[in-house]
Amino acid sequence: MIKLEKSTTIPSSLATYGPEKAAGLIKRADSGDSDFKSEDFSHKIYADAQLKAQLIEDQHGKCAYCERKKGGDFGAVEHYRPKAGYQVSTKSKLIKPGYYWLAYEWNNLLYSCDECNTTYKRNLFPLLDENARNISGRNIDAEVPGIINPYFSNPSEHLVFNQYVVKPRNVGGQEDKQGRITIDSLGLDKNQGLINDRRNAWEEYKNIELALKIAKEINSQEMIEAVSNILAEYTSPSHEFSGMFTNQE
User: What Å distances lie between residue 239 and 60, 61, 119, 233, CA to CA?
Assistant: First the structure.
């Protein structure tokens, strides 16, 4: 996971239709009906093709959470704060309503791979202090989310890698709470396919480091330059798992 910057221009689908749709949801909730379901939200608006493409571009073609980069249409537009209902843990029941008024907010949307979105995160949205949750007042100002949003926070402040293994950063002798919750909620240390992909990328990187060492031993300036350029690509934001290569403990 790496720090992301979101485009400041709100996609036209949200700007044009979002306010009216959100107002309708607020009116319904204020009337006493807040049992929202998926069909109460317009996928065509919050997952419009232009909007989706903009998120993919902002995220360098990668999932916001796991940093995998797959060919084709591999993921979906994800609501960071769940729109219909939320869970505070994987074992807790779904609590309604969710953050319905944010369903069409640009800052509440990111692009996520199918596994992170539907297998792991789903409706999870724990807070460090559950008493700070104020859905009835539609106020999120006091919330400190447990799951890191790379658009809002720098993941390197909470997560670190030991080779290809992700860990919560150690803060004052203790695990960073947001780091731990993020890892557990997204399965970043449980998804075996993801772990294998990170391991393979790490081994490739180490082999290239070895090639650089050999280039230096034989004093081949041309080879040193070529291999160094390849290594530098691994830390580029557009490279798969660049967070792993830039954030080793």
Answer: 8, 9, 24, 7
Compute the mean pLDDT over every residue in the chain, rounded to the nearest whole number: 95
Residue 23 included in any domain = yes
The share of the chain scoring above pLDDT 90, in percent, equals 95
**Count of the separate structural domains present in the chain:** 1
Distances (CA, A) of 207 to 180, 197, 216, 239: 30, 16, 14, 17
**Could you tell me if residue 95 is inside a domain?**
yes
Rounded Cα–Cα distance for residues 239 and 234 (Å): 6
d(CA 28, CA 15): 21
State yes or no: pLDDT of 70 exceeds 90.
no
Name beta bridge partners: 165: 162
- What sign does the CA torsion over 6, 29, 23, 143 have? negative
Considering the domain boundaries, does residue 223 fall inside one? no
User: What is the domain range of residue 94?
Assistant: 12-148
> What is the model's pTM?
0.93
For residue 62, is it within any domain? yes
Where would I find the beta strands (DSSP E) of the chain? 75-79, 109-113, 159-162, 165-168, 170-171, 174-175
What average pLDDT score do residues 165-188 get?
96
Choose between 69 and 103: higher pLDDT. 103
